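Incident log, support desk, overnight shift.

02:14 A customer reports that sequence design results differ from what the structure should imply. Their input is reproduced verbatim below. On-call engineer (initials T.W.) acknowledged and began investigating.
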């Protein structure tokens, strides 16, 4: 992407906002921190929001929250790797990883870093120490789990294997991993499908943040970070004065913090994913005829476009 920016700037000399012509750039060339892992992080924010809905989890027979959830992740590329990583950070377990050469299974949970290192060393995830290996990739999608994350290829869930999928939640990390026929089956089974149109939007969301950064010409957090830290310090000093307790340097460092660019990006991404999920869920709740989150997401998107046209009028 840096090459594209450089070429664009050479052909458009003097253009102030030239770095905004493309996103996904290196941080040193106007990129933004957090972009690489944004799709996987967005998936976890989406799953976390879905799992926080007590009524929905009760109907699925699952507990509230990510803690203890068993996941099967298809794909160990950028999206699958970071999804697995953030799942572990939130207390979930990746019990199987599925790739083209096969799958590995461990009910106690897999360490994605160790799996990636094993694959680099041996050329395959098969034979990973402590895990059961199988060469039948698609069969592994049918194993018992709470959440299935197809994060690799399209058309992996079809009318053939959908009836045998045991996951209560399907989190679509890839584009179009389920066929329309599979969708019908999941709907009839009561499986909660968190659709790709929403779930894997973390990457493009952070790309939008990068575009904003390029237009503003200032990294997120730079203008206000020191001010926020000073305000936090004054607050701690007020507590010390009122209580007589003196905080240690370590406690001050832990309590008086302000977000840097990565913190701002992650916060903005989490807010975006949470608000969007609640909007889709509320639309489905108000209009049950839409039947599923995918249709509700399309309904919301099309409705926003229609509303904009109505408000703007027909001129010219």
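02:41 Re-run completed on a clean worker. Output:
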């Amino acid at each position: 992407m840096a090459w594209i920016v450089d070429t664009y700037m050479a052909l458009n000399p003097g253009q102030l906002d030239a770095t905004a012509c493309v996103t996904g750039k290196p941080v040193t060339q106007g990129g933004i921190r957090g972009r690489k892992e944004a799709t996987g992080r967005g998936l976890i924010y989406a799953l976390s929001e879905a799992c926080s809905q007590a009524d929905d989890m009760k109907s699925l027979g699952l507990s509230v929250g990510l803690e203890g959830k068993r996941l099967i992740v298809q794909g160990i590329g950028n999206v699958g790797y970071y999804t697995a990583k953030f799942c572990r950070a939130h207390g979930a377990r990746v019990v199987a990883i599925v790739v083209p050469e096969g799958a590995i299974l461990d009910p106690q949970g897999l360490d994605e870093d160790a799996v990636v290192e094993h694959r680099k060393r041996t050329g395959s995830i098969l034979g990973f120490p402590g895990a059961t290996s199988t060469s039948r990739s698609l069969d592994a999608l049918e194993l018992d789990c709470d959440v299935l994350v197809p994060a690799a290829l399209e058309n992996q869930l079809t009318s053939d294997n959908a009836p045998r999928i045991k996951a209560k939640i399907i989190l679509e990390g890839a584009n179009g991993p389920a066929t329309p026929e599979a969708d019908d089956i999941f709907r009839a089974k009561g499986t909660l499908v968190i659709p790709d149109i929403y779930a894997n939007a973390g990457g493009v969301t952070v790309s939008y943040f990068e575009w904003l950064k390029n237009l503003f010409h200032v990294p997120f957090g730079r203008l206000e970070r020191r001010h926020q830290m000073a305000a936090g310090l004054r607050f701690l000093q007020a507590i010390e004065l009122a209580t007589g307790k003196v905080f240690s340097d370590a406690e001050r460092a832990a309590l008086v913090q302000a977000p840097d660019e990565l913190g701002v990006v992650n916060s903005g991404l989490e807010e975006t994913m949470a608000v969007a999920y609640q909007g889709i869920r509320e639309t489905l709740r108000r209009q049950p005829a839409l039947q599923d989150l995918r249709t509700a997401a399309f309904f919301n998107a099309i409705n926003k476009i229609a509303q904009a046209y109505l408000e703007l009028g027909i001129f010219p």
